[in-house]
Amino acid sequence: MTTHENPPGERLSRAFQHRLNELFATRQRAGRGATNREVANWMTEHGYAVKEAYLSALRGGHRTSPSLRIIEGLAAYFGVEPKDLLDTGEDPKKELRLALNDHGVEAFALRAEGLSAENVRAVTQLLDQMRRMQSLPAVDPVDES
């Protein structure tokens, strides 16, 4: 092994830790990200027994080899596929997938399906105005062609 190579499993462990922390940060409840306690309680109630301290160790990189059951439970809580927690590649639709996991966004998107381009623009403008009112960052425009 040369000095610039990662030890076996390190790249995947870092990707898992990064993705897990990203999911915790973006899972909004009451205007904040999810907590270790909330996730541990939910997982335990749904048959994926885990302690809050273990989630903290995973998120901090102190524990790096979660069982498949823990990965499955985390994926269930965050509404992603288990493979998404282990993906080291770039995902061009990652922001979209994360946004769809936010409460109500998927239902909103489904309601917009089939609207005319003019109506979609009007709804988009309304959403932009609401984001400004809530001091949320602007969303980069998507190719609307």
Automatic annotation (TrEMBL):
<dbReference type="InterPro" id="IPR001387">
    <property type="entry name" value="Cro/C1-type_HTH"/>
</dbReference>
<dbReference type="InterPro" id="IPR010982">
    <property type="entry name" value="Lambda_DNA-bd_dom_sf"/>
</dbReference>
<dbReference type="GO" id="GO:0003677">
    <property type="term" value="F:DNA binding"/>
</dbReference>
<protein>
    <submittedName>
        <fullName>Nucleoid-associated protein EspR</fullName>
    </submittedName>
</protein>
<feature type="domain" description="HTH cro/C1-type">
    <location>
        <begin position="50"/>
        <end position="85"/>
    </location>
</feature>
